[in-house]
Amino acid sequence: MGVTYERIIERAVALGLPVAEYEFRDTKKNPAPDPPFLIHFSSEDQTGTDAGNRIRKINGSIELYTDRKPDHDLERRIEREVLFDIDFHKTTVPIQSENMYQTAYDFDVVQKIQKKE
User: Fold this and answer.
1) Which helix (H) or strand (E) holds 47?
2) What is the pTM of this model?
3) Which domain holds residue 31?
4) What is the pLDDT of residue 115?
5) What is the distance between the alpha carbons of residues 54 and 32, in angstroms, rounded to a whole number?
6) How far is the C-alpha of 88 from the C-alpha of 80, rounded, in Å?
7) Cα–Cα distance for residue pair 30/28, rounded to 1 Å
8) Residue 89: CB partners within 8 Å, gap ≥ 6?
9) What is the rounded radius of gyration, in angstroms, for the C-alpha atoms of the chain?
10) Which has more confidence, 52 or 77?
11) Are the beta carbons of 8 and 87 closer than 8 angstroms?
């Protein structure tokens, strides 16, 4: 079946950028990081049995946030070091109110889950 969602997130963390699931919680003790940083999130479906196994389909997204303009070097690193073995859809949009750019990578991962006996 291929790579797991958890492995993709491990690869993203290995880039050395700040990473959070869903959002960074901005507090006085722990302020949100300045860009560049990554946010990841997912949704999943589990279906049927395949000789006692369940199929887990995960719709994942990794978002790169950068200051003022897209960072093509970081984008290439994500594509070569994190998402190199899966198909993805990439979208880049400006967030004018925050003076940032968001580059989103959307992908699907299918995993088999062994039935516990």
Assistant:
1) strand 37-50
2) 0.87
3) 5-113
4) 63
5) 38
6) 12
7) 6
8) 105, 106, 107
9) 16
10) 77
11) no
How many folded domains does the chain comprise? 1
The residues, ordered by sequence, that sit 6+ positions from 46 with a Cβ below 8 Å of its Cβ are 54, 55, 56, 57, 113
Looking at residue 75, what is its pLDDT? 96
Q: Are 39 and 20 in contact (CB under 8 A)?
A: yes
pLDDT tens profile 97-116: 989 999 999 999 998 777 65
Q: In DSSP terms, which residues pair with 38 in a beta bridge?
A: 19, 64
Angstrom CA distances, 99 to 96, 103, 107, 114, stand at 5, 14, 26, 46
User: How far apart, in whole angstroms, are the C-alpha atoms of residue 112 and residue 11?
Assistant: 20
Q: Which residue's entry shows tokens 């198909």?
A: 87
Distance CA 11, CA 64 (A): 14
Please give the pLDDT value at position 20: 95
CATH of residue 88's domain is: 3.30.2000.30
Low-confidence winner among 20-24, 26-30, 97-101 (lowest mean pLDDT) = 26-30
Question: Could you tell me the two tokens for 38?
Answer: 């990554």
**How many CB atoms sit inside 10 A of residue 92's CB?**
14
